[in-house]
Amino acid sequence: MRSNIIGIALFCLTAFFAHSQRVFKITGFVLDQDSSAAIPFAYVINTSTGNGEVSNYDGHFSITGKDSDTIVFSYLGYYKKSMVIKNIRNINDSTKRSINVVLNRTIYGLETFNVNAFKIKPYEREYMERVINRPKTTGVDAFQSPITALYDAFSHKGKAKQKLAALYEQMLIDELVEQKFNAEILRKLTGDETIDYQKFKKYCYNINDNFIITNDGYDLYAPIMDCYRRWKKEGR
Asked: Which terminus in the chain has less CB density within 10 A, N or C?
């Protein structure tokens, strides 16, 4: 009798463990709270495995993980959002239902056209730059890193290290872009309080990250205003 009870208990534990180890596919869209517009190139990271993806031009993402894993969504200028996979309903044994992840914009204090608050702290920046510049064959010591576990988890495998370096590089580019051009600056330049920043950036495809980073003052803001005049002329 006792052996039967132990056997049943072991069976239940095995079944529970197998269920908890099941890997699911999670898909959906990252959206802006104010406009419900898609947020392209948002970071989607499984903090438990270190796997990371970037949403596409339409804000769509796809990532995998177990029920116990946590997915973090982030984009410069927005508050991060965390989601535990087990809280997403299953469609079948391998897929969770598609979800819409809505991010809230952060509020920046502006002085002329300078942003006074950024997400990336100095010690995080230092570590990120080390990862970017370190040779691909060299491992990253996550235990000695001052940065959060969200970033540390990427350092376990060579392929993940390369992806992590690419993500860090883009995050630093995003920060440089945000210093010169963001939603608040656009509203201040144009005097248009209702303009949709994400849609405007998509429309002005020639004002890309590289253009923003390499230009200042009149050379930067004059083309933005020219694009805004075309935007208004087309009734957007």
From this structure: N
pTM of the model: 0.47
Which tens digits make up the pLDDT trace of 121-178? 666 667 767 766 764 444 445 444 555 544 454 445 556 667 777 777 778 888 888 8
**Tokens standing for residue 222:** 């004059």
Three-class HEC string of the chain: CHHHHHHHHHHHHHHHHHHHCCEEEEEEEEEECCCCCECCCCEEEECCCCCEEECCCCCEEEEEEECCCEEEEECCCECCEEEEHHHCCECCCCEECCEEEEECECCCCEECCEECCCCCCHHHHHHHHHHHHCCCCCCCCHHHCCCCHHHHHHHHCHHHHHHHHHHHHHHHHHHHHHHHCCHHHHHHHHCCCCCCHHHHHHHCCCCCHHHHHHCCHHHHHHHHHHHHHHHHHCCC
Q: How many structural domains compose the chain? A: 3
Q: By residue range, what is the domain housing residue 116? A: 110-180
In the predicted model, what is the mean pLDDT of the chain? Answer: 75
